[in-house]
C-alpha cells in the first residue's frame, strides 16, 4: 500500500510522571493544547469572587505537560463548559443555559496570572433560527487577536446549518445566517483569513470554498476548487479513504500561503486509521472567475499545521525548536502527528488522569 496510507507508531510522553512548572515566556512562541485548570476550594475566594489555581497545558515541542500557576479562576467558570477557542481565547457557555456565552482569557498565557479581575466578556444570548440550532457548537473563529479590537468579529459555526456572528462589546444581538448547505454529514472548520479579511468554510465534498466578509451583509461568495497533481493511489486505497470520516480544513500560513487539508479518520474494533492529504493553493493560477487551483503536495516546508475543533493555523517550525517541520498536528480522538516527509503517523497517549481537550492554543506571535 502507498506510503500515503501511513504506518502507526506509538510514542509516550517524555517524563510523563512529571508535570513541569513553566512561565508564560515558554508559550509566547509555541502552540500548546489547553488541558484543564485546578484550584483548592479550601483556600476560599479571593477578591472579585475568584480562586487562585493552576492551568495545565501540553507542550508539543517539548513532549511534556506543563503548568502555569497562580492563575485567577473566576467563579463564573465553575458551572460553565468550554465550547470553543480562537486566537488563544476560550468561549464558554453556562451548564444551565447553553445560550449564555462569554469569552475568557483563562488560557491566554500572556494574561496577568495574579490579576483579581479576570477577564470575562459576556456575549449576547444565542438565538436559534428556523432550520438551525445553538445547542451543539462545531467551532468558533475570531477575526482579531483580541476581542477588544474595534473591528473584531466572533463567528460561531454550529452543527447543522446555522452561523452566528457578533462584535464583542458592541453588538446587542447576534447576526444569524443560514449556511447554504447542510454540514451534518461532512464537517469542516470555519476560519478567518488575515490576508483576504474573510471567513472561509469549505463546502461538503471539498470542491467549493464558501466565504463571508466581516459585515456578513452580503450573500456568501463561492470559489470553485480545481485539483491538480492528485496522489497516485491504488483504487483500493481510494475506496478505503471513501469509507472514512473526512474533515476539510482551509488554513493560512503566516506569510499568507493557503492550504486545504483533507483529514480522514476511521475507528474500527481493532484499528485506528488517520490520514491527511494536503493541497497548496497556486496563487499565480487564480482565474478571473475566482477559481482556485489546488496542487497536491507532500512538502509544506518549514511549517506545521495544527488541526482540532478550533480554527486551524500554521506555525513556522524553526520558530519553536522541537516541532517537526513539514508535519500536521491533529487533535481528534487522540493526538496524532502526521509527518509528510516520510508518511508516518505518531500517536501520543495522554495520562488517564489528564485527558486532552480538543483545542489548540496558537503562539501569540502568530
Mean pLDDT equals: 82
Indicate the proportion of strand residues.
35-45%
Give the biggest beta sheet.
9 strands, mixed
Read across the widest sheet, the strand sequence of neighbours is 14-19-20-21-22-18-17-16-15
Distance between the termini: 37 Å
How many whole angstroms does the radius of gyration measure? Answer: 20 Å
- Put simply, the count of helices is 1
Please estimate the helix content: under 10%
Structural class category: mainly beta
Low-confidence stretches: 1-19
Find the count of extended strands (DSSP E, 2+ residues): 28
Q: Which of globular, elongated, flat, extended, rod-shaped describes the shape? A: globular
The H/E string reads EEEEEEEEEEEEEEEEEEHEEEEEEEEEE
Task: Give the key terms.
mainly beta, nine-stranded mixed β-sheet, disordered N terminus
Report on this model:
The chain is an all-beta fold. The protein is 2% helix and 43% strand. Strands 14-19-20-21-22-18-17-16-15 form a nine-stranded mixed sheet, with no helix packed on it. The chain has a six-stranded mixed sheet with strand order 1-27-26-25-23-24, with no helix packed on it. β7 and β8 (101-104) form a beta hairpin. The longest helix has 8 residues, at 235-242. The radius of gyration is 20 Å and the shape is globular. The two termini are 37 Å apart. Residues 1-19 have low confidence and may be disordered.
